[in-house]
Amino acid sequence: MIYEPSPAGPDAVSGFVGAGRSAGVRAALLRRRSRFGDGAYGALRWTGAGLFGAVVLGLLIAIASDSSLAFQHSGLGFVWSGTWNPAADQYGAGILVVGTLITTGVAMVLMVPIGLGTAIFLSELAPRWIAGPLATLIGLLAAVPSIVVGLWGLLVLTPIFANQVEPFLASVPFFGWLFRGEAYGPSILLASAVLAVMTLPTMVALSRTAFAAVPVADREAAMALGATRWQVVRRAVFPAARAGVSAAVTLSVGRALGESIAVAMVIGNRPAIPESLTTPGATLGSAIVNQFAEASPGIGTSSIIALGAVLLLLTVAVNAGGQALLRRGSGAHPGTAGALR
């Protein structure tokens, strides 16, 4: 017996046609809704970008306009002049730029080894029950306000540095000349130590992110070749994450350059070439904080705003360098076998 399907009746055909029409209408509505959503999102995105650009442009125009009087008074020599004496109408940012660079450099010398070692320990060596809480505690440092850190440095660290740390460092052979002079407490060294504490969370967080981005296969390949855990970190993980670590250092430098409140409370605020790291000094940020309220209208106020312009240029340059390092990526690193040779 051969079964032959009966031809579809008119009702079945009309049902198929109706279902097709419903699907077509639904697809058209979805396309229209998608076009509307895409258009709204695009408009919102470009509005936000335009608003941000307008704010940045307005900020730059305001800084340039308000600082023009200072540059007219001192010319481009304002940037590298070594004299800052508002009482004599002598304004030069050079001495403050030097203080900023020295303070930031010393802070990085103190912070980078500790931050990098902490990031390696938390990412590669520490058990999870230690790494999690410790990483959280370090991250909480970033939430502490700058003025609180400054008060801690002023009230707690200042007597310790004046009575113990600075005299001890002055007695160290071969390096004592860096710390010669009277131990006052407030100094470039103390300001650098405070900056090191403030930039430590940035260094640790970004370095851990860079280490986490290294493929697990690289670690397993190194272990398969007989590498110890430390050799895995040194020969396989760190070379692959070098670009991210470099970017972490660069962004930490940018963070340190722009700090003002905490530094102003512990650096001593003396705009002069420092004789040693234990003498008081001044930075661009500390000078702005201490002298803006007392600046004379006109050239005085314009010079303070010009200090902000110089600081902005330094910070933008450093952050641009960090972004360039991030874009370079970590792809150009030797293979695991080559690194372990």
The N- to C-terminal Cα distance equals 79 Å
CATH class of the largest domain: Mainly Alpha
Helicity range? over 70%
The main pleated sheet reads as: none
Cα shape? globular
Mean pLDDT figure: 81
CATH architecture of the largest domain: Orthogonal Bundle
Description:
With 341 residues, this protein is mostly helical. The protein has two domains: 14-74; 78-339, MetI-like fold. Helix content is 74%, strand content 0%. It is built from 13 helices and no strands. The protein has helices at 10-74, 77-80, 94-125, 128-141, 146-170, 188-212, 216-224, 229-240, 242-258, 261-266, 284-291, 299-328, 336-339. Helix 3 crosses helix 6, helix 3 crosses helix 9 (242-258) and helix 7 packs antiparallel against helix 8 (229-240).
What features would you highlight for this structure?
disordered N terminus; 0% strand; globular; disordered C terminus; 2 domains; 13 helices; MetI-like fold; 341 residues; mainly alpha; single chain
Summarize the structure.
By secondary structure, the chain is mainly α. 74% of the residues lie in helices and 0% in strands.
Topology, pairings included?
Blueprint: H1 10-74, H2 77-80, H3 94-125, H4 128-141, H5 146-170, H6 188-212, H7 216-224, H8 229-240, H9 242-258, H10 261-266, H11 284-291, H12 299-328, H13 336-339
Helix pairs in contact: 1-12, 3-6, 3-9, 4-6, 5-6, 6-9, 7-8, 9-12, 11-12
